[in-house]
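User: Look at the shape:
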Amino acid sequence: MESKPDYYKTLGVSRDASADDVKKAFRKLARTHHPDAGGDEARFKEINEAYEVLSDDKKRQMYDQFGTAEANGIPGGWGNVGDMFGGTVGWAEILESLRQGGGLGFDGFGGFGGFGGTARGPVARKGRDTNVTLSVTFDEAFKGAEKRVTVRVPGRSDKETLSVKVPAGAIDGGRLRFKGRGMPGENGGAAGDLFITTKIQSHEYFHRDGADVHIDVPISISEAALGASVVVPVPEGGRVRVKVPAGTQDGAVLTLKGKGAPRVKGSGSGDLKIKVGVLVPTELSDEQRSALEALAAAETKGIRPWE
């Protein structure tokens, strides 16, 4: 038999936790486990399910008493009162009828309704959401693209081909929502949603951090010491010249404003971050060795603070 979830353990609260305690615990866990923040989707659904029950006074009371908030899961003769009279009314329907001011009576056909009304049918349930990963190149994510994606959603008989517009500046892990394209609902319920998550392929030179684009640029010892003008590729295409100041240290970051990716939300673009790496030669010609020896001889003080 499948074990029932302990919603209190899921949220990490005690059984006498207040409504505020439940809400605070949910918000803290949601920030960590939400799929948009890189969390696990299954874990987030467990947290959301627990919060939906414990944040609702009626559902929480039912869960505390019976160990479930589902009408069909309630043990004993009250699990589905309508069954005793040949009807289909469940405990949840009875509570709802009472909440709305209705009564409980026979409908004349062996059912158990409110003041002669007909018994309610099965509860409609929304279908589950479906997630699909879409792999895009660095350039497609940077400039935007239109992709065709064929998906097979569980519960649907046929595959479906969708035209997906990847926005300029799309980020790794970003999600596009197609409402009503997920798994079909139950008992007339609405279909779930289809989420397409973008996965950006690696690039030879660039990598993304939101709207900012990063690139590692090697420079020589002489360029770092004396300063230089070096050619650097930019993600939008082409190349630009960048001034490296004299005395630039290894690991220094130079910034080109507005040369990053377009911002999906808001206006403008991010920046191009150029990380400088001083390249030390592993082999020296006689001329290079003589020049470096002359530099070493000309140094008047040590470079370490304890010297």
Remarks:
- Residues 77-91, 101-119 have pLDDT under 50 and may be disordered.
